[in-house]
């Protein structure tokens, strides 16, 4: 039975380490990687219909840019290494969206790269890893 692993990739070095770790796991047994890229998006309910239309257009452009510039090169690299992978690109809160993807895809695990966020921002707002550790429905691997 092929395992499914959701690996968070945001284009950063930490994201690359997460992909490499998940790829190594995939070579140890049959596994399919789901490269997940989450774009944060806050809904503004006070915009005019014209502003909402323009915002939707920008949203579509951002999704296409993420698909082509961020995720496609990773999928190409994984395919060249003989690793089965696909992508999932969505808008939302990063941790919650990764959990949604893992649940919908019936994943066996989630892999994320540690970004090293410290200081007051991390203490006040938390971090993706901390939130995932609390809400992940499957084992979570945090790659240093």
Observed structural traits:
144 residues, alpha/beta, Rossmann fold, five-stranded parallel sheet, 5 strands, 51% helix, 22% strand, globular
Question: What does this molecule look like?
Answer:
The chain is of the alpha/beta class. It has a single domain (3-143), classed as Rossmann fold, CATH 3.40.50.620. The chain is 51% helix and 22% strand. It has helices spanning 13-27, 49-80, 94-104, 119-125, 128-135; strands at 3-8, 31-39, 85-91, 109-113, 140-143. Helix 1 (13-27) links the parallel strand 1 and strand 2 (31-39). The longest helix is centred in the middle third of the chain and has 32 residues, at 49-80.
Set down the secondary structure blueprint.
Blueprint: E1 3-8, H1 13-27, E2 31-39, H2 49-80, E3 85-91, H3 94-104, E4 109-113, H4 119-125, H5 128-135, E5 140-143
Parallel strand pairs: 1-2, 1-4, 2-3, 4-5
Under the CATH scheme, the architecture is: 3-Layer(aba) Sandwich
What's the alpha carbon Rg, rounded to whole Å? 16 Å
Q: Tell me the name of the CATH homologous superfamily.
A: HUPs
CATH hierarchy, class: Alpha Beta
Specify the structural class: alpha/beta
Strand content: 15-25%
Order of helices and strands: EHEHEHEHHE
CATH topology grouping: Rossmann fold
> Which stretches are low in confidence, meaning pLDDT under 50 for 5 or more residues running?
none
What value does the average pLDDT take?
89
Counting DSSP E segments of at least 2 residues, the number of strands comes to: 5
Relative helix content: 40-55%
End-to-end distance? 29 Å
- The structural domain count equals 1
The count of helical stretches stands at: 5
Shape by Cα distribution: globular
Outline the biggest β-sheet: 5 strands, parallel
**Sheet with the most strands: spatial strand order:** 3-2-1-4-5
């Amino acid at each position: 039975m092929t395992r499914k692993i959701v690996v968070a990739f945001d284009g950063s070095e930490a994201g690359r380490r997460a992909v490499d770790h998940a790829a190594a796991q995939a070579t140890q047994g049959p596994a399919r990687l789901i490269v997940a890229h989450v774009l944060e998006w806050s809904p503004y309910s006070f915009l005019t219909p014209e502003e909402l239309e323009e915002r939707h257009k920008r949203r579509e452009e951002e999704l296409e840019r993420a698909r082509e510039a961020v995720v496609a090169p990773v999928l190409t690299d994984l395919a060249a290494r003989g690793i089965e992978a696909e992508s999932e690109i969505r808008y939302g809160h990063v941790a919650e969206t990764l959990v949604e993807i893992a649940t919908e895809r019936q994943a066996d695990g989630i892999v994320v790269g540690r970004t090293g966020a410290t200081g007051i921002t991390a203490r006040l707002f938390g971090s993706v890893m901390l939130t995932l550790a609390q809400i992940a429905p499957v084992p979570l691997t945090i790659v240093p």
